[in-house]
Amino acid sequence: MSEKQELKPCPFCDSKHINDTELAIKDDEGIIYHYLCVCPDCGLMQVPQDTLEEAIKDWNTRPTEEALQAKLDKAVEALEYIKRIDMYGADIHATDKMLVKMAVHKAKQALKEIGE
Q1: Are 73 and 65 in contact (CB under 8 A)?
Q2: pTM of the predicted model over 0.70
């Protein structure tokens, strides 16, 4: 059996006291078990999942954080290209102009991808 994954803090109140909970629901066919993560500090609960592993994965998935990280990565990429251009300064040889144009193009492309 695999080791249980650590839970991220609550996305609303940043509490680190997150509980993973087993929920037993009795119906005509017997007892159905579901799993969910709950923040006892603010009361946030996720939609119950079929397995504990799914509940933890769902709790730890933060699409907004992942989207922001992707934008940050693109912005850093753009800055790296700009930094390369700046290294040349004002004394750019004719043979280096193509490299500078490519760097500017890549920087603009990266910034366009993040909506800047």
Answers
A1: no
A2: no
> Beta strand 30-38 with 19-27: parallel, antiparallel or unpaired?
antiparallel
Distance from C-alpha of 99 to C-alpha of 27, rounded to nearest angstrom:
69
37 beta partners: 20
Cα gap 112→97, rounded to integer Å: 22
Q: List per-residue pLDDT tens for the chain, 116 residues long.
A: 457 789 999 988 999 999 999 988 888 888 889 999 999 999 999 999 999 999 999 999 887 877 888 888 887 877 777 676 666 554 555 556 676 677 777 777 777 776 65
| DSSP SS3 for 27 | strand
- Structural domain spans, the chain: 1-61, 64-113
d(CA 92, CA 57): 51
The highest-level CATH class for domain 1-61 is mainly beta
